[in-house]
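Lab meeting, item 3. Inverse folding demo.
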């Protein structure tokens, strides 16, 4: 079944040509001429979209406001599609949960790969969040799970229950989305020992999921997650059994490195999380990550 893309673009010429490219590459496409029309389609059409591709500079509701709307509701992966190519714009988008950024004019193969990879990442997130809830007995502050994709949902459900009294629905959704980036880092890179370079290659080749399943079968390491609720903040620690990583490479990027990172298929999640949480601390050479978020 073809994936369905919502394409928002105020230039009719660009809208028509981009729709044609998407259709030629097997996507179903619904078009909108600005962000408000796109939101109306989402709310009234009944269509489930697999990805959103949106220009930024549009009338009525621009791409930034549209990205915020999507981030708070977690409708679909959002691919920014724009001629603006500067670090400030990239940072603003990352703060709105946007992983993927395509600069006009685009190279068709790279554009299509970006959309497909965004959809695969989104499907993984939804698979994790969509698992049946596993009840954890007692007043548990620490849990340990095996390094299995099927076990990640146990942590997500547990954190969701912890957050529900502390944050409104939209904020809890953003929290979970960016917490998952840290959890997946512990799963993929920490315990399964997939390097950043290896993941990029596997994603481009379409073999990443296959490699993850292969590594899972021989991995007996665990991920430990601990929560601490204080008067005005929640602290969550995620610890894997890996050797750690050069976390400064992802949290202390220059403007040039940020723009370079946009052209890679992975490696933005930790940076995005570091901008969302009030504090993010690494210990054990990066194998343990402690997240702090204040609440009112």
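The presenter then showed the designed sequence:
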């Amino acid at each position: 079944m073809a994936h369905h893309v919502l394409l928002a673009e105020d230039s009719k010429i660009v809208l028509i040509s981009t729709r044609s490219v998407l259709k030629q590459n097997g996507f179903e496409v619904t078009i909108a001429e600005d962000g408000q029309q796109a939101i109306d389609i989402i709310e009234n059409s009944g269509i489930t979209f697999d990805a959103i591709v949106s220009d930024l500079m549009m009338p009525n509701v621009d791409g930034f406001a549209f990205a915020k709307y999507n981030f708070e509701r977690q409708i679909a992966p959002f691919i920014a599609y724009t001629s603006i190519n500067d670090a400030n714009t990239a940072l603003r988008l990352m703060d709105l949960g946007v992983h993927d950024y395509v600069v006009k004019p685009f190279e068709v193969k790279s554009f299509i790969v970006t959309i497909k990879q965004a959809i695969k990442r989104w499907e993984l997130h939804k698979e994790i969040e969509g698992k049946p809830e596993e009840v954890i007995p007692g007043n548990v502050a620490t849990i340990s799970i095996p390094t299995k994709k099927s076990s990640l949902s146990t942590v997500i459900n547990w954190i969701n229950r912890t957050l529900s009294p502390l944050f409104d629905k939209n904020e809890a959704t953003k929290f979970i989305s960016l917490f998952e980036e840290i959890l997946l880092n512990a799963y993929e890179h920490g315990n399964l020992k997939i390097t950043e370079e290896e993941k990029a290659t596997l994603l481009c080749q379409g073999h990443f999921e296959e490699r993850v399943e292969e590594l899972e079968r021989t991995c007996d390491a665990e991920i430990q997650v601990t929560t601490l609720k204080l008067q005005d903040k929640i602290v969550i620690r995620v610890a894997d059994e890996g050797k750690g990583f050069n976390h400064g490479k992802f949290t202390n990027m220059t403007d040039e490195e940020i723009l370079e990172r946009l052209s890679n298929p992975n490696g933005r999640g930790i940076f995005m999380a570091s901008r969302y949480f009030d504090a993010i601390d690494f210990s054990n050479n990066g194998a343990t990550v402690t997240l702090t978020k204040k609440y009112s």
